[in-house]
Specification:
Mean pLDDT: 82
Largest sheet: 6 strands, mixed
Low-confidence stretches: 341-350
Distance between the termini: 90 Å
Strand content: 15-25%
Structural class: alpha/beta
Order of helices and strands: EEHEEEEEEEHEEEHHEHEH
């Protein structure tokens, strides 16, 4: 299924039915009076968040969504039938904006969250409602009102607890495939991942969290280089970001520290709030000899910034449990990992000798019995 995270749609609620102009015509009943019924209400357009959906693909090919109108009133005091609401199901995490002003109308982040996108028109009154003692044969009725219509912009932001960011071919897809049941495309060339992938990570003691794999960023992504920043909106809701650094990356100026600084710079250009989120730095591909040789210098450079580095290998699983422990600390505890001064083990102090119990002198005339 194709992943679509941004669409424009036009919604139109149903018009209300017109009231009827009718009079009672029965045998042996003269001057039966008005009998026109009311028109039915038009259907409204409602947006509902559905956690089973992951894409807005359906609305790309069906951008016009119209609800049914209400039925017109009829004679013999018969009211028109009201139309049912048109329910549009969207993935949980969808932002609904006005297409013209950009105003945020709703954030459908919770499953079952609902927005009345366009209200249906009200049915008109039949001429039976306008009969009075002085106007017994009204020959007019009320028309139904028009339903609302508007242009909307739907923007999907995936709901994930952890976001994976890094350069192309850094091993993000391999890592999410290692820790979850997600099976993204993995290959040995850049830009293998073209759309975000979600994976459920089963942690310890029945705890779990959702991890999102974002397509690779490169220098100049904020200016549209590569895939640009079009997918970074999907990590704006994440609690923690994993910066996956490729220790084996080759190229002019490509060093682990340079790659990390470029990532932070592009994140800050996209959103300062995103760049301020807690970060966990993971150095990948330590299973390769050349990559392991770069690890010491990279760890020392970040150690001066009080930032820990988790050396991992997404291919073999080395170091991955420690990385998940650090991520879970942020997700469930809210504390970002930092380098702290190690506590030196101290010897257990010797126990103080107990004071010898002093014997109370025996009273005169009292004989102590031996027990």
């Amino acid at each position: 299924m194709k992943f679509v995270d941004q669409v424009s749609i036009h919604v139109k609620a149903g018009d209300g039915g017109n009231g009827a102009v009718a009079f009672r015509r029965e045998k042996f009943i003269e001057h039966g009076g008005p009998s026109g019924g009311d028109g039915g209400n038009g259907g409204s357009v409602r947006l509902v968040a559905d956690p089973q959906l992951t894409t807005l693909l359906d609305y790309r090919y069906q951008p016009l969504q119209h609800a049914s109108g209400g039925q017109h009133g009829m004679g013999s005091d018969c009211n028109g039938r009201g139309a049912e609401d048109l329910v549009l199901r969207v993935p949980a995490g969808t932002l609904v904006k006005d297409a013209h002003t950009g105003e945020l109308l709703a954030d459908l982040s919770l499953p079952g969250a609902e927005l009345m996108a366009a209200k249906g028109g009200r049915g008109g009154l039949g001429n039976i409602n306008f009969a009075t003692s002085t106007r017994q044969t009204p020959r007019f009725a009320q028309e139904g009102t028009k339903g609302e219509e508007r242009d909307l912009m739907l923007e999907l932001k995936l709901l994930a607890d952890v976001g994976l960011v890094g350069f192309p071919n850094a091993g993000k897809s391999s890592l999410i495939a290692r820790v979850s049941k997600a099976r993204p495309k993995v290959a040995d060339y850049p830009f293998t991942t073209l759309v975000p992938n979600l994976g459920m990570v089963a942690y310890k003691d029945g705890l779990s969290f959702v991890m999102a794999d974002i397509p690779g960023l490169i220098e100049g992504a904020a200016d549209g280089v590569g895939l640009g920043l079009q997918f970074l909106r999907h990590v704006e809701r994440c609690r923690v970001l994993i910066h996956l650094v490729d220790l084996s990356a080759e190229g002019p100026g490509r060093t682990p520290l340079h790659d990390l600084e470029v990532l932070n710079r592009e994140l800050a250009r996209f959103s300062p709030q995103l760049a301020a989120k807690p970060q966990v730095v993971a150095a990948n591909k330590v299973d390769l000899p050349d990559a392991r040789a770069r690890l010491a210098a990279f760890t020392a450079a970040l150690g001066r910034r009080k930032t820990p580095v988790f050396a991992i290998s997404a291919a073999t699983g080395e170091g991955v449990p420690a990385l998940l422990d650090a991520v879970a600390t942020v997700v469930f505890g809210g504390a970002a990992p930092t380098l702290k001064r190690p506590l030196r083990p101290r010897g257990r102090p010797a126990a103080k000798p107990k004071a010898a119990a002093r014997k109370r002198p025996a009273r005169r005339g009292v004989v102590r019995r031996k027990r």
